[in-house]
Amino acid sequence: MADKEQVKPLASATAELRSDDHIFLPPPPKLNLYRNKYIKCCGCFSALLLILAVIGIVLGFTVFHIKTPDIKIDSLSFPNDTLSSNSGIIVVASVSVRNPNVASFKYSKASTKIYYHNKVIGEGETPPGEVKAKDTLKMNVTVKIEPWKIDDASSLIKDWNSGALSISSYTEIPGRVKLLGAIKKNYLVKISCSLTYNSKSKTIQRQDCDQRVRISV
C-alpha cells in the first residue's frame, strides 16, 4: 500500500500582523479643522506683516521723509534811495521760506549781513518764528547801511551816485523739523547773494544767489 500522502494544514486566511507593522489611521476631522485654521491664520498674519512693511516703506520715503526747507531771497529794496557820508540807507531783504514737510518748521532768529568789497556794512535780524506744514512764509529783514562806519565810504557813495552799486548779502536761518515727536532734523540754511543795484532806475540789474544747508539730528 502506497504511503499516504502527508497533508499539510492550510495557512490561516487571516495573516497575523507582525508587531513591527504600523497601521495608518486618518486624523480625526476635528484635528484637520484646527490645522486648516492654523494655516489660514499664519497666512493672514504673514500677509498683514507684508502689507504693514510696504506701507512703512512708502511712508518712510514720502510722508515721513523730512525734506530740506527752501529758503531764498526774493528781492532787496532801498526805501529811502539816498546815500551820503552822514546819512545811512535802509536795505530791506524780502525772504521767503517754503516748508515742504508735513510738520512745522520752527526757526530761530534769522540774520542778514550786507557786504561791500567783502566788508560788512550793515546787519539785521528777524525774531524766531514758525512755518506751518506745506506752507510758505514771507519775511522782511531790515538792514541799515552806515557809510561813515566803513573805510570805503567815498567809494560806496561814488558807486551809488553812478547808478551801479555792487553789494552782496549773507542770510543765515537755523531751524528744526520734528515729526511725531521723535523724528527730527536740525537745519542751518545759508544763503549768499551778489547783486548790482541801479539807484537811478531803482531796480536790481543783476542778482545771483547760492543756498547751502547743513543738516544734523
Automatic annotation (TrEMBL):
What range(s) does the Late embryogenesis abundant protein LEA-2 subgroup domain occupy? 95-194
Cellular compartments annotated: Membrane
Tell me what topology the record assigns in the membrane: Single-pass membrane protein
Any stretches that span the bilayer, and where are they?
38-64
Output the Gene Ontology cellular-component terms: membrane
Q: Which residues form the signal peptide?
A: none
Which key words are in the record? Membrane, Transmembrane, Transmembrane helix
What protein name does the entry list? Late embryogenesis abundant protein LEA-2 subgroup domain-containing protein
Q: Which organism is it from?
A: Cucumis melo (Muskmelon)
